Amino acid sequence: MNINATLFAQIIVFFGLVWFTMKFVWPPIAKALDERAAKIAEGLAAAERGKSDFEQAEKKVAELLAEGRNQVSEMVANAEKRAAKIVEEAKEQATVEAVRITAQAKADAQQEMNRAREVLREQVAALAVKGAESILRSEVDTSKHAQLLSALKQEL
């Protein structure tokens, strides 16, 4: 056997194997590799989309939280204003009621004082009439008049 013929046969077999591999084996392997690369690229793109969606969701949550905090602080401020207004109205009503009660008490005291004056006037008038009557019944005497007047003073 000749080394050239063996080498030539080996070259033919080698090229036949290369041709067979390139024709039948290599396309499915390349196709599988391309599909795998496409799946990896798709997974990476989905991961990026998910990351950006997550960031957007985080931003939206932060905005909603800020808005909620603003609404809560506004509600608290409104409640405090309303409470202050209610307290102020209660103070005003209490002041009005105190003024009304004071005026009523003054009017009642004035009426009582007027009644007491009337009673006192009636008593003084009765005493004056009684004193005049006793003066007119007794004789006109200066010492007796002085005694009667002093007795009348003591009764007043």
Summarize the structure.
The chain is mainly α and 156 residues long. Helix content is 96%, strand content 0%.
Order of secondary-structure elements: HH
For the record, give the distance between the C-alpha atoms at the N and C termini, rounded to a whole number: 175 Å
In the predicted model, the low-confidence regions spanning at least 5 consecutive residues are: none
The average pLDDT score comes to 86
In terms of DSSP E residues, the strand content is under 5%
Number of helices: 2
User: Main beta sheet: strand number and arrangement?
Assistant: none
Keywords: ATP synthesis, Cell inner membrane, Cell membrane, CF(0), Coiled coil, Hydrogen ion transport, Hydrolase, Ion transport, Membrane, Transmembrane, Transmembrane helix, Transport
Subcellular location: Cell membrane; Endomembrane system
Membrane topology: Single-pass membrane protein
Coiled coil: 47-126
Account of the protein in words:
The chain has 156 residues and is mainly α. The protein has a domain at 25-118. 96% of the residues lie in helices and 0% in strands. The mean pLDDT is 86.
Tags for this model:
156 residues, mainly alpha
List the helices and strands and how they pair.
Elements: H1 3-137, H2 142-155
Helix pairs in contact: 1-2
Coiled coil: 47-126
GO molecular function: hydrolase activity; proton-transporting ATP synthase activity, rotational mechanism; proton-transporting ATPase activity, rotational mechanism
Family: Belongs to the ATPase B chain family.
